[in-house]
Amino acid sequence: MNVPNYLSHLSVDNVIFGYHNKQLKVLLMKLNNNNYWMLPGGFVKEDESILTAAKRVAQERTGLSELYLNQFKTYGDPHRTKDARIVKLEAYSSYTFDHQAPETLDSYFVSVGFYTLTEFSKVAINKGPLDQDCNWFALDEIPELLYDHNQLIVDAVKSLRLHVDHYPIGKKLLEKKFTMPEIQALYETILDRTMDRRNFSKKIMKSGIITKLEEQRNIGAHRAPYLYAFNEEKYNEALKNGIASIF
Amino acid sequence: MNVPNYLSHLSVDNVIFGYHNKQLKVLLMKLNNNNYWMLPGGFVKEDESILTAAKRVAQERTGLSELYLNQFKTYGDPHRTKDARIVKLEAYSSYTFDHQAPETLDSYFVSVGFYTLTEFSKVAINKGPLDQDCNWFALDEIPELLYDHNQLIVDAVKSLRLHVDHYPIGKKLLEKKFTMPEIQALYETILDRTMDRRNFSKKIMKSGIITKLEEQRNIGAHRAPYLYAFNEEKYNEALKNGIASIF
DNA sequence: GCAATAGTGTCTGTAAGACAGTATATT
DNA sequence: AATATACTGTCTTACAGACACTATTGC
Predict the structure, then answer these.
(1) How does strand A6-20 pair with strand A110-119?
(2) B242 CA to D8 C1', in Å?
(3) N or C terminus: which one in chain B shows less Cβ crowding within 10 Å?
(4) How far is residue B95's CA from residue A211's CA, in Å, rounded to a whole number?
(5) Are B185 and B237 a contacting pair, CB within 8 Å?
(6) Rounded CA gap, A73 and A151, in Å?
(7) pLDDT averaged over every residue in chain B
(8) Which of B210, B27, B30 is nearest to B119 (CA)?
């Protein structure tokens, strides 16, 4: 049952986070012949890197190509895919887009976990040809998933929050020009805690990754907020070298 | 060339750090038919987890069985093992202890990187049956290694230092009873920077992971230092939940 | 003037870091 | 007494966190 096109016993799984309007969600899918939700994942071709494979999988479902993926952990336990609930032979062909799979889905798969962060209102969800369903779930409404995928999400969230503490985010999640309340809401949502407006503003301005513009945005019956934009140089430098824990 | 006993295209590589007397070293090996040093690594059996495989590999070379392994990153690029320097057919049989290898060593291997930290004076180095050599190297004397193994070491060091910032270490590296200068030397060596004696002592005592004993150690012609021991409860609790960046 | 949102400065406490003099043991 | 090591406390500074009032806009 070896299709030479794919590496056997190896897969990638993606935790695709979507942010929009103070909500953080995760993209889940459900196979045709199985009534359980799972993370979108796929196999690795013989001539591609694991990162490329993960990007391909993410792109297939979201349509977005410029995703910034982050590897967070690799799962390799012979029992992790022994899941009584999965319908063996019928399921595997739909896991990957081109209808090829190196083994049945309950054989031993070592899976490399990646996560990414997108703006979910920009995503046009694209079901796999044999997916039954594919949709966003809020973090506190994740159902029981196949395999160890609930654990993957827990680990990915932890990793994302650690990342946010040391690297800038927001370029792909906010408009080019955004307000201070908007970027604060982004951080508060991802870190799942509220922060003091004055302290937040002080700290993020001191880090230098955003710049205050002269413009304001008209928001109707309220005081107009100032607009900000990312400082490209500082932002990129911080992406590379990290920033001493801002939040 | 598929030996069903092992997962194909998958390996584990171990960065085995050894600490002793203010020195931090890495265990490297050299295959019989190849004049380049590399990290000890191995393959994953069909019925074992990647962690078990990595432990097996580490135990084979060090003789130590109670190692605490830490997964730090997975490497999967189709070109990572295309190394002109390796002697293809002759080399692979010696990579693993039981003379079986699923492919030649230059096929595509996705490798899961682990590191561990040991007391190197306790290690009886055990060459693989077909290893030409196996030895400790100081961090600043690592030669050019096969494949991407130099990068693995860089990443492992980074990961180790990050780990040390948030979790206690030392139980496997120091005697049951140790002095303040000894534990400080350990931290200074791993983090590769000196620290102020007074501040170090203040901070580590405040963290609660060590306790001052009544005893002192006789060190000859000098003032006798007090002995300390780890506080098991605090230590284990900190291992689980981490400690707010001590150093 | 009311409601809703945005904007900003100061104070306090804590913790980190710099720093030097005293104590002990041996010869 | 000389040497080598160990022990410890205070001061300063920076940063985090708490906190409240004013400004703008539309109705």
Answers:
(1) parallel
(2) 28
(3) N
(4) 54
(5) no
(6) 11
(7) 89
(8) B27
The answer to whether B109 and B14 are in contact (CB under 8 A) is no
3-state secondary structure of A178: strand
Residues B107, B88: Cα–Cα separation, whole Å? 10
Residue A245: closest C-alpha in chain B: B245
- The 8-class DSSP code of residue B222 comes to S
> Phi first, then psi: what are they for B7, rounded to 5°?
-75, 135
Q: How many Cβ atoms sit within 10 Å of the Cβ of residue B62?
A: 23
Protein CA B168 to sugar C1' D8 (Å): 24
Q: Is the pLDDT of residue B152 over 80?
A: yes
Cα(B78)–Cα(B88) distance, integer angstroms: 16
Report which residue type is found at B159: S
CB-based contacts of A38, cutoff 8 Å, min separation 6: A28, A29, A30, A31, A145, A146, A147, A149
pLDDT digits (tens, 9 = 90+) for B53-83: 999 999 999 999 989 999 999 999 999 988 7
pLDDT tens-digit map of A187-245: 999 999 999 999 999 999 999 999 999 999 999 999 999 999 999 999 999 999 888 77
- Which pair of structure tokens corresponds to residue B216? 């002192």
Band of pLDDT at residue A97, cut at 50, 70 and 90: low
Q: What residues in A contact B53, CB-CB < 8 Å?
A: 76
Say how far apart CA A39 and CA A105 lie, in whole Å.
13
**Tokens at B122, concatenated:** 């306790």
Distance CA A69, CA A149 (A): 18
Structure tokens at B19: 């600490």
* Nucleotides of chain C touched by protein CB (<7 A): 3-10, 16-20, 23-27
Predicted structure pTM score: 0.92
Residues A151 and B166: their CA atoms lie apart, in Å, by 22
Provide the pLDDT confidence category of residue A247 given band limits of 50, 70 and 90: confident
Write out chain B residues lying below 8 Å of A49, CB-based. 76-78
**End-to-end Cα separation, chain B, in angstroms:** 50
Measured between beta carbons, which residues in chain A are less than 8 angstroms from residue B71?
73-74
B9 vs B71: CA distance, rounded Å: 18
